[in-house]
Amino acid sequence: MTKPQPQQNQSLSRFILLLMTTAIAATAANLYYNQPILPLIAREFALNDSQIGSIPALTQFGYAFALLFISPLGDSIARRRLISVLSCLLVIACSMAVVATNLALLLVAVFLIGVSANITQQLIPFAASMVSKENKGATLGTLMMGLTLGILLSRTLSGLVAEHFGWRSVFVMSAVLASFFGILLQLFLPSNKPQSNLGYWALIKSTLGLFAQHKSLQIFTLSGACWFAAFNVLWATLALYVYEQPFNYSTQQAGLFGVIALAGVIGAKASGKWVNILGSKALIMYALILGAIGFAVSGLFTGNLLALIVGIILIDFAIFSAQVANQVRVFSIDPAAQSRINGIYMLGYYLGGALGSIAGVKAFSLYQWPGVVVVGITFILLSVIFNAYAKKA
Predict the structure, then answer these.
(1) pTM given for the model
(2) Range of the domain at 224
(3) What is the pLDDT of residues 97-153, one digit of tens each?
(4) Averaged confidence pLDDT in the chain
(5) Dihedrals φ, ψ of 7, to 5°?
(6) If you ran DSSP here, which 8-state letter would residue 29 be given?
(7) Same domain flag for 122 and 245
(8) DSSP code of residue 112
């Protein structure tokens, strides 16, 4: 490993922070644009359930692939240059989806869309490297607000555009947005000096080495993976829960629960301020307690709409607050390897979410909503245990 170089003293202006935040929102949305339009794609290409399920799966797999094999490049290549390359790839991938005449071409396109969405995981450590330790919490809170808005609004925007202009128009919109933000980021992002001159495969190897080297990174990753698993336990089963008695909601009505998830935006923003007051470890503990209470409320009053809404608000607020606080300490581990550390951390976070989705659906099929509540609280308790072993920060 190369000797870490001192981080350049760069200031993060309000304009650059706003640009990064909106670009993160627009880019993260690409991971979810295809979900509301799956029935339209299935109808045009005459796809079965397994085939249609491969479209969102390949998108997410592309994103996971990039976390391990693309994110580390931010430490050895100027981030503005890397972001420009990924922006071009995103435009090309969306264009491929627009003209796709069969499932195979569309799957290649959505995989590349997932890969190029790694722009978000280049911008976050880039911004973190440009602010002082005292300002990291507030900065990450703002960036996470953009990420959350992109995730929450993506499905609504995609469904609206597709309803009026067809499913291909969604990818046209995405290509236009990618071009727009790609140009702005190229014009206005500051240049940075890479912190490593390692070759590609040495860089990937060092990424795994960093995980083995830093016990704190292992703890932060396991803790984050568990609470994100709990988050996905909720959202993977929520639609199944409200489709049945006593709710009997339609797909459109079930989708409105996403609006309630805007509480996560408030959590992401607020936690950025509180992390400097309470410290990351304490703030995460308080957040996890709120999350457990959220699951408990929804479980104790099963079938009650108000209890479900309160539970969702508490869980979303808790998870996004904990994530901001956790990333503050993740980015403090090694300033010379922030992209690699963030990549391996987010990969663990993502895998935790996948595990939570699987466990949640299985629990619901066996024990209905009470089973979901028990599994969700179990993951949160595991996160509490891991966080208890973390050094105070």
Answers:
(1) 0.79
(2) 210-388
(3) 999 999 999 999 999 999 999 999 999 989 988 888 888 888 888 898 888 888 878
(4) 87
(5) -70, 140
(6) G
(7) no
(8) H
Sign of CA dihedral 338, 343, 349, 352: negative
Is residue 204 domain-resident? Answer: no
Tokens of 287: 């957040």
Say if residue 272 is in the same domain as residue 340.
Answer: yes
371 with 257, same domain? yes
The winner for highest mean pLDDT among 26-40, 243-257, 276-290 is 276-290
Cα separation, 334 vs 222, whole angstroms:
18
Q: What single letter denotes the amino acid at residue 68?
A: L
pLDDT value, residue 156: 77
370 Cβ neighbours under 8 A, 6+ residues apart: 299, 302
Give the residue carrying structure tokens 């990420």: 147
CA distance 296 to 313: 13
279 compared with 236, residue with greater pLDDT: 279
Same domain for 55 and 134, yes or no, is yes
Mean pLDDT of 176-185: 97
Asked if residue 5 is part of any domain, the answer here is no
For 215, the 3-state DSSP assignment is: helix
Structural domain ending residue among the three candidates 134, 162, 193: 193
Task: Give dist(CA 164, CA 167) in Å, integer.
Answer: 9
Going by C-alpha positions, the residue among 262, 36, 28, 19 that lies closest to residue 150 is: 28
